[in-house]
């Protein structure tokens, strides 16, 4: 096998392992797993896991980052599939909700309890809020949204997104994260439309 082929194989295997880890974590959470249990479930050695990360904590953080990178690609693809700013905001928030809809309550609880993973979620939420602001600005410039204070509207969305991430919306309303994002999209776009 050539060096390039070996590198491609290693990259593909690494991506496959992260995808398998992510599927497992999204379904079952991650706090209860040991590295031995993860290796057994993935049919690999612990040394293979150590090529992904130096410890279980780092493996969880890396898998969480993998989740958000993949989610960002999916969300941006949804935004790119529609043209109008209103449809883009709706597509954006709905896609975020759909992505989170794949996460079990156990995964979300583990995410909230594990600081490095929670920080990745919080960072991603801040990035998402900035993206919502950009989409609002685009809508105002296109005349599709009334003149609004885009920073305030984005801050309102951010506050709700953080409450969703922290589980406060679920506790107060019973809405799961995916449903809460869809409701946020409906309320936000209706509130700023011309």
Automatic annotation (TrEMBL):
DNA-binding region(s) in UniProt: 34-53
Transcription regulation as UniProt keyword: yes
Record keywords: DNA-binding, Transcription, Transcription regulation
SUPFAM superfamilies, per database record: Homeodomain-like (SSF46689), Tetracyclin repressor-like, C-terminal domain (SSF48498)
PROSITE patterns: HTH_TETR_2
Keyword Ribonucleoprotein (UniProt): no
Highest taxon of source: Bacteria
Occurrences of domain HTH tetR-type (ranges): 11-71
Gene3D superfamilies tied to this protein: Homeodomain-like (1.10.10.60), Tetracycline Repressor, domain 2 (1.10.357.10)
Protein name: TetR/AcrR family transcriptional regulator
Annotated organism of origin: Gordonia hydrophobica
């Amino acid at each position: 096998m050539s060096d390039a082929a070996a590198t491609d194989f290693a990259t593909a295997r690494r991506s496959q392992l992260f995808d398998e880890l992510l599927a497992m974590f999204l379904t079952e959470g991650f706090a209860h797993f040991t590295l031995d249990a993860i290796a057994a479930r993935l049919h690999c050695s612990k040394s293979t896991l150590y090529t992904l990360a130096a410890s279980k904590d780092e493996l969880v953080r890396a898998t969480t980052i993998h989740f958000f990178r993949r989610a960002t690609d999916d969300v941006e693809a949804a935004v790119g599939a529609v043209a109008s700013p209103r449809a883009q905001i709706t597509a954006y928030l709905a896609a975020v909700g759909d992505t989170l809809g794949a996460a079990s309550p156990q995964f979300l609880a583990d995410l909230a309890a594990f600081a490095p993973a929670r920080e990745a979620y919080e960072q991603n939420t801040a990035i998402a809020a900035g993206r919502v602001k950009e989409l609002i600005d685009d809508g105002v410039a296109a005349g599709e949204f009334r003149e609004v204070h885009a920073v305030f509207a984005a801050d309102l969305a951010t506050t709700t997104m953080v409450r969703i991430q922290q589980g406060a919306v679920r506790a107060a309303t019973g809405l799961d994260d995916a449903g809460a994002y869809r409701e946020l999209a409906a309320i936000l776009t209706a509130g700023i439309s011309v």
